[in-house]
Amino acid sequence: MKRLFILATVAVSIIIVAVACAQKTTTPQQELTKHDEEINEIIKGMSLEEKVEMLHSKTIMSSEGIPRLGIQEIRYADGPFGIREEIGDMFMPKGWKLDSATYFPTGSALAATWSTELAYKYGTGMAHEAIRRGKDMILGPAMNIQRIPVGGRTYEYFSEDPLLAGALAVGYVKGVQDQGRAVCLKHYAVNNQENDRGTVNAIVDERTLREIYLKPFKAAVIEGGAWGVMTAYNKVNGFWCSENAYLNNEILRGEWGFNGMTVSDWGGTHSTMGAALGGLNVQMTGDTYLGPALIDSINIGKIPESVVDDKVREILRVRYTVKAIPEEDANIVMASQPEEQRIAYEVASKSVVLLKNENNILPFDLNKVKNIAVIGQNAVLSTAAGGMGAGIKTLYEITPLKGLQNRIGDAATINYARGYKNYVRSWGPPVPNPNNAETIDEAADPEFIAEAVKLAKEADIVLYFAGTNKSIETEGSDRENIDLPVGQDEIAQALAEANPNLVTVIISGGPCDLRKVNDLSKAMVQGWWNGLEGGNALADILLGNIAPSGKLPFTFPLKLEDSPAFALGTYPQKKEVVKENDVFVSQYRKNDIKTDSVDKEEIDFSAFFRRPVNGPDAPYSEGLFVGYRWFDSKDLPVLYPFGYGLSYVDFNYSELKTNKESYQANDVIELRFTIQNTGSMQADEVPQVYVHRINPSVEWPDKELKAFSRVTLQPGEEKTVSLEIPVDDLRYWDEESSSWQNDLCNLEFLVGTSSKDIHLKETVSLK
């Protein structure tokens, strides 16, 4: 009996250990399946009509649950940099009182922090406001690669580098989902231009697809455990993303183990058979394809009902994981609260990039600077809304001028002049405004110049706020160029002639051509679209209350023609196609139709907006050589490189070491080096580790980012930084074997402060 007891005890111990091990090895995606047994029973009791009702929109921002069983619909929150106000048909605001949200810094600003910790905080803030609004799934993060400098959604996306984009996406995803809300990664996949986005066919080789464009999504799904994915408008290698079985079934669900739900972009579904068999769960919006037509297809035997069962199961996994907010508990307090506003400030304060600081003109000393000229409408204009796409009904927004006034008070005199006219794209009849330009390239106004020059001559320092706005960088269209608009270069010339102490602050979401203004300015600052606290954060940096620590998440080329897609002639596409309205605009903006003879309420809009199926082909001929990979491999000069950003202090790098001299396939490469703050104030530094392959057997870019960190250092403080790079992360996609392979060669690790500024080197080998 005693022996039996011992054996039983051992057996129980083994079971406990096995369960513990199983729990430790459970992946984030497997967590979604823990209610499958209950869900399967529910599906057995559902009618076909009930199931199909879940596969398309209920309202413009929701899809159906199971009302009979009290299972609530899924409510979507438009993002990704703030919870959108409540909207109804045609995306018209409902005018609620408590739906003002925190306007967080946009994607490129968050990316400039190079901080996964801040990305996590950002996600928590978004989730908290979604909970207050009763929303289940946030339509974000937006995480496509910034392939072209003119991209209309560069401001929403993170980076031209997949490692940086993926790391930030993982932080954002975990921040949201740890609070019990779901993300919807977008736009899957290869959505890298806004022109013709509803029809363009991205042609990309398999290695480039895997190593560049899918890599951030893979990280967000596997490491982050994302519960939702939004399919993109475009085609990839000939197939619409919403019905691309290779992307959605083979890779997303098969290889990556995704167990959640996919949602089409609004209006991005194209067929019943394709969507049903190609991996789409929910058609947004309407039921044209995943509605009655799907029921008919099942009834005649074209699609098995089990396909619908699978889709319902995947939706219910998310519904069971995300606790529904009862209507009586939602929208009872203001969405934006001080906690989220503090997160927005923290992100903004660590995103600002100091590009140039001649003679240490910044920070300026209020003991010496008593008269400040603030020039340019970007100092006073809001960036929370405008253009097309998701905007934020923000509770407030601190503009750069307001931030300076808040921080300076009566310690100095601040005088403001408009400087240039503002270009505002009209979505309806234009409203006359003497401050607005008629065209984006309108020459500078002599009256505005005279007003600005007068203030500049009287000032101790001139702060010139240039850049773009949300009419220029906007969803639905790409910029024609990256020139500074409305005569801003001409204004800079006049200001520099009036006062040599010219500091230029660029307020934009993406890169601009800064060659002229850079030469004219003593200091250059990239200020981004930096959220509701952006003006306070910027003022704190200009005044030296904190040290700048942002790093560029993409390259600022000397000129647009140097960037890869333009240099190779693959963008803009030259193939002529029927010019169509934008896929999103086509659905919801009736005022785009120009007719005075017909009542717009009686028009059959579907006839107006039948888009050509055969859009332009977009060959990704540069392959792996995107962004800095192109410029560094071609040894092309740039204005400011990827990863670049100055501080008010200097940092000393030393003592780079690796844990071994050679590594095998399953090893982890450990790098250690020392950083010292040699300045007189606390500051953050972002060391970056790149890898250069010395004797490879396949083609590689000159260098690729493989690790980074953000380090806070007190004056004189020295810290040892430890970073790990799994050898697995150094593999390439072999197209012949359709698998990841190691390139057994020598590796040179490069530690620096940008892709072009390397401080330390160490060579190891792969065996």
Architecture overview:
- With 767 residues, the chain is of the alpha/beta class.
- It folds into 4 domains: 31-329, Glycoside hydrolase, family 3, N-terminal domain (TIM Barrel, Alpha-Beta Barrel); 352-546, Glycoside hydrolase family 3 C-terminal domain (Rossmann fold, 3-Layer(aba) Sandwich); 578-611, no CATH class; 649-766, Immunoglobulin-like, CATH 2.60.40.
- Helix content is 29%, strand content 19%.
- The protein is built from 23 helices and 34 strands.
- The strands form 10 sheets. It has a 6-stranded mixed beta sheet with strand order 12-19-18-17-13-14, with helices on both faces.
- Helix 6 (116-132) runs parallel beside helix 7 and helix 14 (338-349) crosses helix 19 (534-542).
- It starts with a helix and ends with a strand.
In short:
Helices cover 29% and strands 19% of the residues. It has 23 helices and 34 strands. The strands form 10 sheets. The chain has a 6-stranded mixed sheet, with helices on both faces. It has a 5-stranded mixed sheet with strand order 1-2-3-4-5. A 5-stranded mixed sheet has the order 24-34-33-27-28, with no helix packed on it.
Itemize the secondary structure elements and their pairings.
Elements: H1 2-25, H2 28-31, H3 36-44, H4 48-53, E1 57-59, E2 62-63, E3 74-78, H5 107-112, H6 116-132, E4 137-139, H7 162-177, E5 182-183, E6 185-188, E7 201-203, H8 206-213, H9 215-222, E8 228-231, E9 235-236, E10 239-240, H10 245-255, E11 261-264, H11 272-277, H12 292-299, H13 305-321, H14 338-349, E12 353-357, E13 371-375, H15 400-408, E14 413-417, E15 422-423, E16 436-437, H16 446-458, E17 461-467, H17 488-498, E18 502-507, H18 515-520, E19 523-526, H19 534-542, E20 556-557, H20 564-567, H21 583-588, H22 605-608, E21 617-619, H23 628-633, E22 638-640, E23 651-658, E24 662-663, E25 668-677, E26 683-685, E27 688-693, E28 704-708, E29 711-713, E30 718-726, E31 732-734, E32 739-741, E33 746-752, E34 758-766
Parallel strand pairs: 3-4, 4-5, 6-8, 7-9, 7-21, 8-11, 13-14, 13-17, 15-16, 17-18, 18-19, 24-34
Antiparallel strand pairs: 1-2, 2-3, 9-10, 12-19, 20-22, 23-25, 25-30, 26-29, 27-28, 27-33, 31-32, 33-34
Helix pairs in contact: 3-13, 6-7, 6-14, 7-9, 14-19, 15-19, 16-17
